[in-house]
């Protein structure tokens, strides 16, 4: 076997921290959310969004409830600049929403950024420079002090431009970019210098954003780093600790959640995890994780289908069908045992203690995020009787009794196995009709008249019902008149006598389909012959007695 070159990689160092407190914490309220869809999400797209698309996306983010939205990198391009101006000049920013703009710590870019936000009521200027060992060495070729100087000079310029603008609505965020590749003591040193330069105080807090620019470790190590940082930062009340997690190891959501437990106040993320490389922390997942624990996420994802549609249209990105909460298949069960449990859980749900959601395999109610129950159970060769019965009942009101479910499931399974594809509910309904209801061969009931003595009260054992039938088989046509304690009993007696097929009714069930005066009745039957053969049938008619007789003929027609 060829060996992978794992020795090319080194393990990420752990954090020297004792008595860590975060493992014992739980998240009981939503963090301050900041959307980075229009910046980090946008800069990672093969075709970045146009101004119009950014406006649409911005309005979507506002409607979801984001109060802080990073709208772009205005000094990067004419589109980015024009978008910021459009938001401000056309007054598209609600009063309770703060826009955020990103800039490198370079003078001409910072100045251009201030031009872009001129006139904004509330704005966060977000300054970053990479502090990681690797980038210090290979990108900037600068030592620790020189890199710190970039941050300090950039901060000083932002401070000066804010003061000159006289705009008290401008706030400041600093990111020691590539924090995950930066020594903790050095990141702290740079952040302290930035705080001093800004003059951070409890009255004018700055946001210190500690990004997992590249996700390099398990989430617990990141959480240790955040707890260490929160413990060691001076004037904790002068800063808001923010996190911005990328998903290189596939654990960005866990990273952000554990970081909040470790003390982070604020979380940056993007819808459906859009963003550089493997994406940003998926804010839909984190918010709905809170929601599923009974915590108000303070973001509204009650119409995920609309959010998905706008997102796809603006970004031209897809959402994986397995993406938690938002993927198209995440509320769908194909497999038999899941379907059975879901179907039983849905029936029991109204009785759940305290009205709490408790349906197996469905961590949240799909309706809470704007999805319907239609797709919960879908049928293919992995499905079982519970699922087949569930879709027929839900879509067509056909409540196949438990004792007959395996029989029909076998029919469905045979088709699913042969075709190898998923069966639609319409196909399953058609199969049910073809297999039971429409069967006319080898026996056809050509005529059937039912009469009974109109006596009150009727006695169960009294043979007061008379039936007259004309029956066609392959061999012959015959008629009979028989009596019984009801139409079905009379039919069975007459048919057995005339045909010589000796059977009895072992199981029987019936119900109405639909509620109006024109409702139909459906009957299900299981018959057993004296020679050991067993068969199931179903019949539909506006007359319940006829439905039961048709069901019997259906079962006779299906005798092996
Ligand atoms: C982790 C992140 O996502 S950070 C955000 C990244 N986003 C983007 O880069 C999208 C928008 N960026 C752009 O359009 C461009 O990079 C611009 C317009 C901002 C700048 O463009 P340019 O100056 O032409 O090119 P470029 O970004 O390659 O500049 C690199 C130079 O800036 C320096 N630099 C890079 N980042 C920073 C920073 N944060 N602060 C200060 N200097 C920086 C580099 O060291 C390099 O310096 P050198 O020329 O002396 O070698
Ligand atoms: C600018 C910073 C916050 C960033 O995008 C990152 O580190 O990923």
From TrEMBL:
Function: Catalyzes the condensation of the acetyl group of acetyl-CoA with 3-methyl-2-oxobutanoate (2-ketoisovalerate) to form 3-carboxy-3-hydroxy-4-methylpentanoate (2-isopropylmalate).
Localization in the cell: Cytoplasm
Principal localisation: cytoplasm
Regulatory domain: annotated span: 439-560
Any GO MF annotation of the entry: acetyl-CoA C-acetyltransferase activity
Name of protein: 2-isopropylmalate synthase
Gene3D superfamilies named among the record's database cross-references: 3.30.160.270, Aldolase class I (3.20.20.70)
Entry-linked PANTHER family: 2-ISOPROPYLMALATE SYNTHASE (PTHR46911:SF1), PTHR46911
Residue intervals of the Pyruvate carboxyltransferase domain: 31-305
Subunit and partners: Homodimer.
EC number, UniProt record: 2.3.3.13
Pfam families assigned to the protein according to its UniProt record, in alphabetical order: HMGL-like, IPMS_D2, LeuA_dimer
Reaction catalyzed: 3-methyl-2-oxobutanoate + acetyl-CoA + H2O = (2S)-2-isopropylmalate + CoA + H(+)
Superkingdom: Bacteria
InterPro entries (alphabetical): 2-isopropylmalate_synth_dimer, AIPM/Hcit_synth_CS, Aldolase_TIM, IPM_Synthase, LeuA-like_post-cat, LeuA_allosteric_dom_sf, LeuA_N_DRE-TIM, PYR_CT
Signal peptide region: none
Pathway the protein acts in: Amino-acid biosynthesis; L-leucine biosynthesis; L-leucine from 3-methyl-2-oxobutanoate: step 1/4
